[in-house]
Please model this.
Amino acid sequence: MALFPDATQVIDASVAMLSRLESEADDAEGGHERLDTGVVGDAVNTAARIESLTKTYGRPLLLSEQTKQAANEGAGRRFEEVDTVRPKGKRDQITLYAVQ
Model:
């Protein structure tokens, strides 16, 4: 888990982590260095629901409309609208975006 002051930094870090994971997919030792932590809250719950949809849509990274709007789109990233869903346990719908 990491905290960032800016949504653009969140997206950049996520893309970098996914790239690193792909390049080190054969390294089975990395998992031993992970910490077992827990966080609660509505934002964390929503993020977990969105993350679980990555398999459904075959996308390694999905963002909410709120994160997309908070990100600086002029920073070289393009976004593709994927779908609008109502995650389990949520009253409002969320529009999902993939990073291009």
Remarks:
- The beta strands are 62-64, 79-85, 94-99.
